[in-house]
Design brief:
heterodimer, A: 249 residues, alpha/beta, Rossmann fold, 4-stranded antiparallel beta sheet, 10 strands, globular, B: mainly alpha, 12 helices, 80% helix, 0% strand
């Protein structure tokens, strides 16, 4: 069955940005769970910033839900967790609850306080990410894994259809990483949230994701994870002789 | 109370409380963004406005405000569009505007005691007209801060993520520097150009020692700021010393006691 136009939540066509991104094109369908991999300096974060509209492409187009990025106004459909969330400013006096509430900031004003429904949904999300006991703590008092959950809760508050994460597991211990990936999988499979995230962790690619986007300035491949995890693709991506070994653990 | 029998003291208290509320609440956003130098730079820039006021014989409060707001927009524009470090940019404008202010004041032959008042503040300098201007802009600024509180907090915490949620971060940045510039323009007579930066920063840093939420820290900063201003004005009245310096010394004493509290009860 052919894919309808509106089934694509993200469309990228002939995207260029200075010398960092060269002629990249790909489409992402609703419900996809996609990892972006590539070497440091390969343009992964730049690609995400272009999709989010944080920087303007030199040429090419980005469409979100069928609309040009520049005309797309329904920003609450996209949740973003940036790089380095585990290393926030330790002096910033802000609590977990205050950070998560920022997810409603786009609609706050003097004449519209947070509604009862919004507050109830906030409590639901705080409970879902396991932060109920920590909600009145200062963010600076949390571990890396806990801060990561705070940022995801803030991103989920606006009920996004797409969640974009830039190296979310940097500075997080192995156990917290596993819990985190299980949570992402649940969001993708149960809540049907499209997930796009940058990672260097090939183990998670083997486990959960549906597709892998390999970039090193240009798009090297955008395929099923099993195709990507070939020695030749890894060698081209990282510029070294790679030997991919599969095991059952 | 003897102090309240003087109209100029009542005016100083009214103006001082408005300035204390504005300086500390805006200071919260400035300090957490590591942009504390902004207030000092704009204070020196507002001196240039005062110099224009002398030169053209117009209200120095208005000329200080207009100059500070205009140049704050220029600083924000340069910060966003040119690859210049923020602190270097502020240093350029701080020294540049002070130099220009000295030249303009020399040309207007007003290099006398009145400039001293603008540098260090004077409780007798606040006129009835100033009170109208300070209270009008003060109320407007408080309403704007309250209206945009969540958005300003988001932009201060993580500007990129705030932008991706559809918040107009550019507008908020211009709004913040404009409000800081207006507050400094309003404060220059009572606190002084050399000291207003301290009133924006010290009560906030003192409140941050108590490790509460952002909102509670902001409320505490406002309380510390009002206390510093009221105590500073009373002491400066009875001891006949410059009001601005006394207010800042009060703020420093609160800061020192906050540090001790932090050390003892942590």
């Amino acid at each position: 069955m052919p894919i309808k136009f509106m089934d694509y939540v993200i469309e990228v066509k002939n995207l260029n940005y200075k010398t960092y991104i060269e002629d990249i094109s790909f489409n992402i369908k609703r419900g996809d769970y996609i990892a972006i991999i590539g070497p440091n300096g390969g343009g992964k974060s730049t690609l995400i910033r272009l999709v989010l509209g944080l920087i303007v492409p030199t040429s090419g187009k980005v469409k979100l839900f069928g609309k040009d990025r520049v005309n797309f106004k329904n920003n609450s459909k996209i949740g973003y967790v940036p790089q380095g969330v585990t290393k926030n400013d330790s002096s910033f006096p802000i609590t977990v609850y205050e950070v998560i509430k920022l997810g409603f900031a786009y609609k706050s004003s003097l004449f519209s306080s947070t509604s009862i429904e919004d507050r109830a949904y906030m409590e639901f999300i705080i409970d879902k990410v396991g932060l109920t006991d920590l909600k009145n703590r200062l963010i600076s008092q949390l571990s890396g894994g806990q801060r990561q959950r705070v940022m995801i809760a803030r991103a989920l508050i606006s009920k996004p259809d797409i969640l974009i994460l830039d190296e979310p597991n940097t500075g997080v211990d192995t156990n917290s990483q596993k819990i985190f990936y299980d949570f992402l999988k649940e969001l993708n499979q149960k809540d049907n949230i499209t997930i796009l995230f940058i990672t260097h962790d090939l183990e998670v690619i083997v486990g959960d994701v549906t597709k892998v986007l390999c970039i090193n300035r240009s798009l090297l491949s955008y395929e099923d994870k099993n195709e990507v995890l070939q020695c030749s693709t890894m060698s081209e991506l990282y510029g070294i002789d790679a030997h991919v070994m599969h095991h059952n653990h | 109370m003897e102090i309240l029998q003087y109209d100029f003291m009542i005016r100083a208290f009214i103006a001082g409380v408005f300035i204390a509320i504005l300086a500390s609440s805006l200071g919260m956003f400035v300090v957490v963004r590591r942009y504390s130098m902004l207030s000092d730079a704009l204070a020196h820039i507002s001196l240039l406005g005062v110099a224009f006021g002398f030169l053209f014989s117009i209200s120095t409060t208005w000329s200080a405000m207009v100059t500070a707001v205009t140049i704050s927009w220029l600083i924000e524009y340069l910060r966003r569009n040119y690859n210049i470090y923020s602190d270097s940019l502020l240093a350029i404008f701080l020294t540049g505007s002070l130099s220009l202010a000295i030249i303009v004041i020399s040309l207007s032959h007003s290099f006398n005691v009145s400039l001293f008042n603008y540098l260090f503040g004077s409780i007798v300098a606040v006129s009835a007209n100033d009170i109208y201007v300070i209270s009008s802009f003060g109320i407007l600024s408080v309403l704007l801060i309250t209206n945009f509180y969540q958005k300003l907090l988001f932009v201060s915490f993580d500007e990129d993520v705030a932008f991706t949620t559809g918040i107009n971060t550019s507008f908020l940045n211009y709004l913040l520097v404009s409000l800081v510039a207006i507050t400094i323009g309003l404060s220059i007579k009572i606190v002084g150009a050399l000291l207003i930066g301290a009133l924006m920063v010290i009560p906030v840093i003192s409140a941050m020692q108590y490790g509460k939420s952002f909102l509670k820290t902001a409320i505490l900063a406002v309380i510390f700021s009002i206390s510093s201003v009221v105590l500073g004005l009373i002491i400066s009245f009875y001891v006949s010393i410059p009001s601005g310096a006394t207010i800042v010394v009060m703020a420093l004493l609160i800061f020192i006691s906050s540090l001790f509290k932090n050390k003892i009860f942590r």
